[in-house]
Amino acid sequence: MTKIQLFDTTLRDGMQGEGMSLSAQEKVRVAHSLDELGIDVIEAGFAESNPKELELFGLLASERFEHAEIAAFGMTRRRDSRADEDPGLRVLVECFAPIAVLVGKTWALHLEKVVRVDRQENLRMIGDSVAFLVARGKRVIYDAEHFFDGYADDPAYALECLVVAAEAGAETVTCCDTNGGTLPHSVAAATAAVASTLAQTGVQVGIHCHDDAGCGVANTLAAVRAGATHVQGTMNGYGERCGNANLVSIIPSLQLKLGYECLTEAQLATLSEASHLIDELLNFTPDPDAPYVGRNAFAHKGGMHVAGVTTDPTTFEHVDPIVVGNGRELLVSELSGKGTVQARAKDAGIDLDDVAARRVLARVKELEHRGYHYEAADGSFELLLRKETGEYEPLFRLESWRVIVEKRADGRVETEATIKIWVDGERYVRTAEGNGPVHALDKALREAIGEIHPHLRDIELVNFKVRILDETKGTGAVTRVLLDASDGRAVWGSIGVSENVIEASWEALVDSLEYGMQPGRSAQPHAPQPARTAPHP
């Protein structure tokens, strides 16, 4: 198996994407996560380019990594100057990072309109800069910016730029599709030419792609098959414009599909966790449809699909989800068959025969026609299963609830809820104030039964979504409320549907608490997420 060197540029190139912002301390956490995943080289950014980068490199200098090496990014020397006098190169020499990444030009268009140097001076800039750093003990990766555009314009000159870097001592030369518009067949042909040209030098060929044509991952795979063994990208495809090539998709495709060695099996099994952790640090919601690691990557909805994976997972799954740290999820909807229902019941520890499964399925189809959506409400669905099999025990019996929302002349809004419930033959009446109707109802309910069920203190609302189901009816439309709750171990969803948004919220709230209190409750099929504080509706 050919070993692939994995180079992550999330902390440098990835940070150029819209909405990307991490503190220096958070970047250190990302670096450790990448190290634990098994990334070989972490490009931390421009050393000392701004106060945050200065702080980051200061922190990284005192950190210890089990596997990864830190690289600092810079540019070739300025035109008409000496390498040993260039301030940017001197920063790279003084930086603790053992690897220096140099970006330089290969495309005549940029020589003419951006840096305004002739072709020979550009070659001298590349060679002088690489040689200067190598002479001072740095290992150099040369990133040939806009290489594929330059190769399409003048193949001989583009290759000459790489040969100069190699002869000056670069250990790796990286072909960059900086504009992200090259297609896989062109990437493969150009990379093969590079690999052939440098075959006798021992220099490693690398690939760095952007995703502007939607081909970042495909271009990277094509380059590796053509001879590249150094792969650059970002976690989750972060980056400027349409993003960089997504390492989270590239790594398992190279290892599981093409047979290249990227990570150990144990490291690959942490891929989903690493992907979601970095999303969380950036305050992004993990993409549920992301290949390999998304919540829906191995979700099955149609009855035939569920029947197939239940019999043999390879019928509808291209890899085993466990290999990448993900899990299979069987979605319940009006498209489901009884096999889906029975599989979900088995996961919950509920014995469901064929007759009961058909009854549950009929009930699901009826409720989904009214606006329920059980794919996102696994907690409510399990309660439905228990109700249909007679295993359901309610936490309480409702007598009534009432919510008062008062808007005052001074602009203040106050909400008060009163509930009347029965538990074990005893009547409880509680009133509570909250930031909104659901918050007030939640507080009143917890005050009423919190001492009887102390585990309720561990259950928190972490998300609240409201959707109008029939927009033509305006404020009189039926609304669907989806709640996510967590006890710190797992996250589950519950649902309520009503023409009254508070009634729909109450229904979802009660389901979320009742599910959380079920004995022997099964955890969410996908990886649990940390609880977040959600605004109180």
Question: Could you give the topology of this structure?
Answer:
Elements (H helix, E strand, L loop, with lengths): L4 E4 L15 H14 L3 E6 L4 H11 L7 E7 L11 H8 L4 E7 L2 H6 L5 H17 L3 E7 L1 H7 L1 H13 L4 E6 L6 H14 L6 E6 L6 H10 L4 E4 L13 H11 L7 H4 L2 H11 L17 E2 L2 H9 L17 E2 L7 H10 L6 H16 L8 H12 L7 E11 L5 E11 L2 E9 L2 H13 L10 E9 L10 E8 L4 E8 L2 H16 L21
Helix pairs in contact: 1-2, 1-12, 5-7, 6-7, 7-8, 8-9, 9-10, 13-14, 14-15, 16-18, 17-18
Structure, described:
This protein has 537 residues and is α/β, with parallel strands linked by helices. The chain is 38% helix and 20% strand. It has 18 helices and 16 strands. The protein has helices at residues 24-37, 51-61, 87-94, 108-113, 119-135, 147-153, 155-167, 184-197, 216-225, 247-257, 265-268, 271-281, 303-311, 338-347, 354-369, 378-389, 437-449, 501-516, and strands at residues 5-8, 41-46, 69-75, 99-105, 139-145, 172-177, 204-209, 230-233, 299-300, 329-330, 397-407, 413-423, 426-434, 460-468, 479-486, 491-498. The strands form 4 sheets. Strands 1-2-3-4-5-6-7-8 form an 8-stranded parallel beta barrel, surrounded by 8 helices. A 3-stranded antiparallel sheet has the order 11-12-13, with helices on one face. A hairpin with a 5-residue loop joins strand 11 and strand 12 (413-423). The longest helix is centred in the N-terminal third of the chain and has 17 residues, at 119-135. The two termini are 55 Å apart.
